[in-house]
Amino acid sequence: MSAILKEIPDDERLEYLKGAWHECYLQEKEANKNRILVEREIFNLLPIEPEGSYKFDEVTIVTGFNRAWDQEKLFELQAEIKPEFFPFHAELKESRKDSKIIEDRFPDLWEKIKPALTTKPKKPSFSFKEKT
Questions:
Q1: How confident is the model at residue 126 (pLDDT cuts 50, 70, 90)?
Q2: What pLDDT does residue 72 have?
């Protein structure tokens, strides 16, 4: 165990761990703020284009854009463009609310759908709400 997680009685351990977690959280928050300020300074000093990958010594900076397409407009355009020249593909996305209903109410249907599903555990998420 790391030094921060010292041996303490079980009845006090959760309170201790909550405090230790909060201290780590505050340090991480401050470090993140400082890292962002340093990144901004580096970015402003270097000749970087809006889109690309740039390596300066051990530092790599990747710039680019999040791209969002108007789905209705693309469906309209799809009819006018030969399939081999249309650079978009349909993707089926789950509505967890709807699939949960099928899972709970229609188990036979769920058993047909379930083989197409792969699940991986998420990393636990922690948050802390400051007392005001």
A1: low
A2: 87
Find, among 129, 126, 95, the residue nearest to 113 by Cα: 95
CA 80 to chain centre: 36
Structure tokens at 131: 């007392």
What ranges do the domains of the chain cover? 1-67
Torsions phi, psi for 107 (to 5 deg):
-60, -30
Q: pLDDT: is 47 or 126 the higher one?
A: 47
d(CA 31, CA 39): 12
Q: Is the pLDDT of residue 111 over 50?
A: yes
Positive/negative CA dihedral, 29, 53, 69, 118: negative
- Which residue from 22, 17, 63, 65 is spatially nearest to 39, judged by alpha carbons? 63
